[in-house]
Write a structure and sequence with these properties.
The structure is a homodimer of 263-residue chains. Chain A is built from 5 helices and 10 strands, in the order βαββαβββαβββααβ. Chain A has 263 residues and is α+β, with helices and mostly antiparallel strands. In chain A, a hairpin with a 2-residue loop joins strand 8 (168-179) and strand 9 (182-189). Chain A binds chain B through residues 8-10, 56, 58, 77, 81, 86-91, 118-124, 126, 128, 179-182, 239, 260-263, and chain B through 8-10, 56, 58, 77, 81, 86-91, 118-124, 126, 128, 179-182, 239, 260-263.
Chain lengths: 263, 263
């Protein structure tokens, strides 16, 4: 049996999602909680997105394959939340088809990148946003979004040293809101390269600071040169909001898994 | 010379505002930062509100009386923020009249109390809200607000054991918003008794759970009996938003000190 869990976490105190030998990770803590609830029964666990240290999630999707399940699937969130620490929560659990794969079958992912754009830092957002003290031209940043949308080779927006088969990805939507100094960059795409959202956010910040002209973005993308794009923004501004699945080919239609809105 | 500082802090890691011998407090850490910046010059420091452990602030007002000031007043936030930890920030500094008093001269204070009202906890709000998993009837809570507004003896909404001259306070405004499960209670009044906002929030929660009828609130207030009002909500949901001053009698009009909106 395959089960898909929707998991939210505050990444502040974790060395990222991926299990590691000597560091506390979200995967590791969730693994221990499941082990406790499944009472020794064997299982496998695979997340849709390997979020970095400090990155948050409201809709991480995690595929759990237990040998045996001694409690009803719909009770799993209650059971797991009772043993998980406060900064991790399971929000949903669903049975999925046997051939489901949480990475391969994801049709899109949505991230938000948050920037606090006032002269002084906001202590209530210090773990949940990047602070840019110089005023950003948000309209110019918004005008730049259209250049990223579509199918492109995003090699210029990929951390150097990462090995992937192809650096082509499709961005379906990129939007920026601004509310009293809290700038939020929403991006939805079919997949993201390593650090891609944080480098897009950094490039938009350079636009907002007047250091990159929006009209040069197509050339930056075309260059496939990491040095042409903007800085990599810090991890704590990033939140994985949602992973969407839809797999009509096996006759099983997964409902889109929507995370709650985060304010 | 008197200086009024506007201070924001994440109260999670502090034993409240008030300086204490064996605990780390916001007052204590701010005191040390000022000592460092003033380079040994003597000073006094008094906050407008003694927030409890875990309570946050975006607009705490702090009166600083330095013997000597070796930097321009408007540079104080930059200087202090450079030595303060990330979870405390000075947002503003202004010169005030010699007879200014941060507690006596406050004409109103505004607090927000946040409740996360979904079945499962929100890890990104675990330090910034109270979690109520049962669905609250927010409309009923909103209808209850009017009963609190006005000048009342709020003895029923004061933690037992606190000694004050009078338990009469005036609430100017009490409003509740609800956005996708995040319920925010905004309250503005001329002053608040110990735990008063958290007990009002707790009473509104009992209304939302159907345990207290809104029509009985006037009788609860009139009873002056702490046992008649609702529970004391936990500290982490509470944020001091603003302290307003206006002192026309000494010919000096302080502009209202408005905190930025928090989202």
């Amino acid at each position: 049996m395959g089960i898909l869990l929707k998991v939210a976490y505050d990444g502040t105190n974790y060395a990222g999602w991926q299990i590691q030998k000597n560091d506390i990770t979200v995967h590791g803590v969730l693994h221990d909680a499941i082990k406790q609830i499944l009472n020794g029964s064997d299982f496998s666990l695979l997340g849709a997105s390997r979020t970095d240290a400090g990155v948050h999630a409201l809709g991480q999707c995690v595929h759990l394959m237990p040998e045996n399940l001694n409690i009803p699937v719909e009770r799993l969130p209650y059971a797991l939340n009772s043993v998980l620490p406060k900064d991790i929560a399971v929000l949903d659990s669903k049975i999925v088809s046997d051939d489901f794969h949480p990475i391969r079958d994801a049709i899109s992912k949505t991230y938000i990148y948050k920037i606090w754009n006032k002269a002084y830092r906001n202590p209530l957002l210090h773990n949940y946003s990047a602070h840019i003290s110089k005023g950003l031209d948000v309209e110019l940043m918004q005008e730049s979004c259209i250049h990223f949308v579509g199918k492109h080779d995003f090699a210029a927006f990929c951390a150097t040293g990462s090995s992937v088969k192809t650096t082509v990805r499709e961005i379906f939507s990129l939007k920026i809101s601004n509310s009293n100094g809290l700038i939020e960059i929403f991006v939805n795409g079919n997949g993201f390269l390593y650090n891609m959202v944080r480098i897009i956010a950094g490039t938009l910040v350079e636009v907002g600071l007047g250091k990159i002209n929006p009209n040069t973005i197509p050339a930056i993308i075309a260059s496939c040169d990491r040095n042409k794009a903007g800085r990599t923004m810090p991890p704590q501004g990033l939140t994985l909001i949602e992973v969407e699945y839809n797999k009509p080919e096996n006759g099983r239609q997964m409902p889109p898994i929507r995370s709650f809105d985060f304010l």
